[in-house]
Write a structure and sequence with these properties.
glycosyltransferase; 16 strands; globular; Rossmann fold; Glycosyltransferase_grp1; transferase; Glyco_trans_4-like_N; disordered N terminus
């Protein structure tokens, strides 16, 4: 068992608790990492506690000013992990902090919120838990939902990416009176050479986890209805370390006879700007609710319009800026039409859309909001259950 010694109260200003952290990559992980490292750069003492999902990762390390603690994993259950040491480790760190930030959904969220003692709890609600259909999916969702509900009742504040998504959550009644809408941090990337382009035809692309809920089978099917031989579909993202399993095999089979479709695999940070610069349109065809869509917004900031499912949360970057198209989730014909329509935007429209997105979303504004929230919560004293 990891020994974490809380030598004095308020060893940390903030402890961040979540299941997966570096080296895992997902939208949720990136939000937690960017906020933790950003607050540390502003002088706050920050710890992160997560599972040691990758056995090669150290049990404890300091990364960009953040103390990272990892609890060993005993077993894996679908997308989740069983880590008996995680809860006691997280609880000790939470009690030694001015505030604890629990990222939801998480199985241990409710017990952790209760074991935090007098420490104020901030929950960041990314999404309602979603699992592919299966015999055990229903019971697993109910267990996690009950834990999430406990954490929300114990929260001094609930951070959501936008009210649109929160209002459609199963947990909305527990969030509405303590809501703090803070858009996730989106990185403003600099223009880069379009090294992923393969000719003059329209290039459509996706960047994210190659997982079932992303609706990439709809994107492949929609693209295949586009007859332009010079068109390209670039699907980028990790498919080797996806919690719960990847669908890349099924997608490859679906697109095997179309040489215009390319799977790039995981992209390191240094290649992401080049990927966005290579696109005419970004696509976010998710079939399960996304609370925002950081990758689509970062592409939009670089002047690439987004085509997104017209669903709570993920539609907000498009509706708030007018930069892109929406389509009914799962509608292949409407998706193809939206892709072709967005590809016709002029350079002037793309420049204006990029400026509008950069003005609305960005890392510093997110950090300002978290910093202010920590100040308010820290001054509030003890939070009652």
């Amino acid at each position: 068992m990891i020994n974490v010694r809380a030598a004095r109260p308020h060893r940390y200003d903030l402890t961040v608790a979540l299941t997966y952290y570096l080296p895992y990559t997902s939208g949720l992980t990136e939000v937690a990492r960017t906020v933790a490292e950003g607050l540390a750069a502003r002088g706050r003492r920050v710890a992160v506690v997560a599972s040691r999902h990758d056995p090669s990762s150290p049990v404890r390390e300091r990364v960009n000013g953040v103390d990272v603690f990892r609890a060993p994993v005993a077993a894996r259950i679908g997308r989740g992990v069983l880590s008996p040491g995680f809860l006691p480790l997280a609880a000790r760190l939470a009690r030694a902090s001015r505030a604890v930030n629990i990222h939801l959904p998480m199985l241990e969220a409710g017990p952790l919120a209760l074991l935090a003692g007098r420490t104020p709890v901030i929950t960041t609600h990314h999404d309602d838990v979603w699992l592919p259909p299966g015999r055990l999916a229903g019971p697993q969702v109910r267990v996690v939902d009950a834990s999430v509900a406990t954490a929300l009742r114990r929260s001094a504040a609930v951070v959501v990416n936008n009210a649109d998504h929160a209002e459609h959550s199963r947990h909305w009644p527990l969030m509405r009176d303590r809501l703090a809408a803070i858009a996730p941090p989106c990185r403003e990337r600099q223009p880069a050479p379009a090294t992923f382009r393969e000719g003059p035809g329209p290039h459509f692309g996706f960047l994210g986890r190659i997982a079932p809920e992303k609706g990439l089978h709809h994107l492949v099917d929609a693209f295949r209805t586009i007859e332009d031989p010079a068109a390209r579909l670039l699907i980028a993202g990790d498919y080797s370390k996806v919690a719960g399993g990847s669908v890349v095999g099924a997608l490859r089979e679906r697109s095997a006879d179309d040489p215009r479709i390319r799977f790039t695999g995981f992209l390191p940070e240094r290649q992401i700007a080049a990927f966005y610069s290579s696109l005419d349109v970004f696509a976010l065809p998710s079939v399960a609710e996304e609370s925002f869509g950081i990758s689509q917004t970062e592409a939009m900031m670089m002047g690439v319009p987004s085509v997104a499912s017209d669903a709570p949360g993920m539609r907000v970057p498009v509706t708030s800026t007018g930069f892109g198209r929406l389509f009914p989730p799962g509608d292949i014909v409407a998706l193809a039409t939206a892709l072709l329509g967005a590809a016709t935007l002029s350079p002037r429209q793309r420049a204006e859309g990029g400026r509008a997105t950069r003005a609305r979303y960005g890392t510093e504004g997110c950090l300002d909001s978290y910093d202010a929230l920590l100040g308010r919560i820290g001054a509030a004293g003890r939070v009652t259950a």
